[in-house]
Amino acid sequence: MNRDWATHLSKLLAATALLGVVGLLVGKVAWVMLMGVGLYLIWTLRQARRLHQWLTHEQKPSQPPESYGLWGDLFDGIHRLQKRHEESQDRLKSLLNRVQESTNALNDAVILTNAEGAMDWWNDAANSLLGFKRQVDQGQIIYNLLRDPAFKRYFVNKAYQEPIELASPANLQIQLRIHITLFGHDERLIIAEDISQLTHLERMRKDFVSNVSHEMRTPLTVISGYLETLGDHLDTLPAKWHRPIRTMRHQADRMEQLLADLLLLAKLENTRTRKRDQINLLQPLLEEIRADAMEMDAYREQAICLTGNATTGLLADAPQLRSALSNLVFNAVKYTPAEGDIEIHWWSNAQGVHIAVRDTGIGIDPVHIPRLTERFYRVDGGRHSETGGSGLGLAIVKHVLLNHQGSLEIRSQPGLGSEFICHFPAHRHPPESS
Ligand code: ADP
User: Fold this and answer.
1) Which residue ranges of the chain lie beneath pLDDT 50?
2) Structure pTM?
3) Separation CA 127–CA 131 (nearest Å)
4) Please, are residues 135 and 115 in contact by the beta-carbon 8 Å criterion?
């Protein structure tokens, strides 16, 4: 570039010198110089006009106007810049086309909205899954089309850690799982996945478990009844039958407990099951549960103390609450040695109501904690059969808490003990109780 400039400058100086010499020869240096500058100015203005015409031409000719010298370089430079710009635009366009083509090929619906929820773009799957119409719905607010109040709440609250599940407005048979991701200035990328198949399988699994449990109840009741009668008349039977009958009764009891837990879980999972919220005073409820725990076969005279405010209440379904807290207290009894302590502590604060069951028992290795609330999850199979648990207790606790918008926190150290804390949200804390 510097070399080009030096060439242009030297050409200009040479032309000026030539004009000077011509001027000297004709004896009119000033006139010849003035004429030269005038001609140069006219030529420069002409080039500037050509540049202007080229740049403002509606359908720009692909080639720049022919010129030479400084102006020739200027035309070529601008042309090069233009070409580079066009190339990068073409690249961007083809990238955009590829993104659109690939998202159109997706089975999941993909929607882009601005901060207010106006729909900027969506793929073909959104048309079929959600019933959007490209011409009509462009720029519409998404929650005016997906008119489920739960979706509007989810969209507005911006708490997108968990997806939301709802039926499609286009076809109520289509069950959707919707994830939202925030980007840019509060813009949203919304992905809706068709989970109808999964929901159907899940429903079949629940129905199967619930039906099998129901069907098994009647024969088991008959067997248990006969075993009980036999047990009541053990002294009339030969001694060799005593042990088998006792074992059979014990196992029948376990099976009955298992079936009862399975049916309870099925009921808790069924969103259509009506939940009757009422104010439960925690102290009397927990005192009753302590009395039940002390009646358990596994009870080994451990100290069970209750600490908390006598007036604290909780808005919850009474049988569900009782079942969850009983499971936690009975577990503490089962997994704490005779000399151990069990404490049931409850309190309320701005976050809500909290109930903790602490024990100084055998504790749990932290690797098991994330899976403890899974059905039939066993920390130790051998220990499990010894304590005779169904493996469903903590799954029941989790579902009861989910039904009450609460959560379960588990802290434990092997050999030191465990703490299970039930957290209930603030709206479950009746204002008059503290
Ligand atoms: P189970 O009927 O076997 O007690 P749960 O679902 O209630 O089933 O508990 C799952 C597992 O969690 C238990 O098998 C046990 O290993 C462990 N667990 C639960 N509570 C305690 C506790 N308080 N102390 C130690 N381990 C516990």
Assistant:
1) 383
2) 0.68
3) 5
4) no
